[in-house]
Amino acid sequence: MKLNLKNPIVFFDLETTGTNINTDRIVEICYLKIYPNGNEETKTMRINPEMHIPEESSAIHGIYDPDVVDCSTFKEVAKNIARDIEGCDLAGFNSNRFDIPVLAEEFLRVGVDIDMTKRKFVDVQVIFHKMEQRTLSAAYKFYCDQSLEDAHTAEADTRATYEVLKAQLDRYPELQNDVAFLAEYSSYNKNVDFAGRMVYDENGVEIFNFGKYKGMSVAEIMKKDPGYYSWILNSDFTLNTKAVLTRIRLREMSNLITK
């Protein structure tokens, strides 16, 4: 089934130095851009992470330090990537929990301002897990009846993710061929920040999703315990979490001034 698109959608996959969204870096990115008229553009690039790639990570994706030593750094390609995905919705496999937070951190780290708040995020893994509870290779075999060659290479995984989503739309009539619906369906919760440290409650209010104030209003805690804000800013949280929390704090301060 062809995707019903209002905006271009970019399927993408990252290979990284590890799984810590705070500190690990991208070593390869591939994205497949699908336009509403069905046209496709694809791009794959290796990236110098400016740090050692641990052997356990290289064993998975096959990318070693010598492979990226002469490649561009993320800072050198960030503006081009931002331009390529401007105005696009985003999709991937486990992308809501990993790829999107990592990409957002990389942009923030090099000072490239990209607003993702108006994007829709479709996570094909969440749809798959809700329907079948398996891995990408199993999903590709199950939905497309093909074996996934070169698994854990960004290009193969990106293409397989796109093919799986189209097959999911064919298989499940309850899935609407609409990116807004798919984005909502493929989200387990409504994150305020990409790491899920803050989420929206049933009334659309930002609440903390961790620690001693879990389940409590972020705005109220900022008033009650302003030191908590300073603690988060000086602790090992993602840049995105800190930026979102700062935005909420400034909004609440502005509301107090205008009252």
Automatic annotation (TrEMBL):
Where on the tree of life does the source sit, at the highest rank? Answer: Bacteria
- GO MF terms, alphabetically ordered: 3'-5' exonuclease activity; DNA-directed DNA polymerase activity; nucleic acid binding
UniProt-listed CDD domains:
DEDDh (cd06127)
What are the GO cellular component annotations? cytosol
Gene Ontology biological-process annotations: DNA replication proofreading
UniProt keywords (A-Z) are:
Nucleotidyltransferase, Transferase
* Enzyme Commission designation: 2.7.7.7
The answer to whether UniProt assigns keyword Repeat to this entry is no
Q: Which lineage?
A: Bacteria, Pseudomonadati, Bacteroidota, Bacteroidia, Bacteroidales
Task: Please give the organism.
Answer: Bacteroides reticulotermitis
Q: Domain (Exonuclease): give its ranges.
A: 8-174
One Pfam family from the record:
RNase_T
Q: What is this protein called?
A: DNA polymerase-3 subunit epsilon
Entries under InterPro entries matching the protein = ExoX-like_C, Ribonucl_H, RNaseH-like_sf, RNaseH_sf
The broad enzyme category this protein falls into is transferase
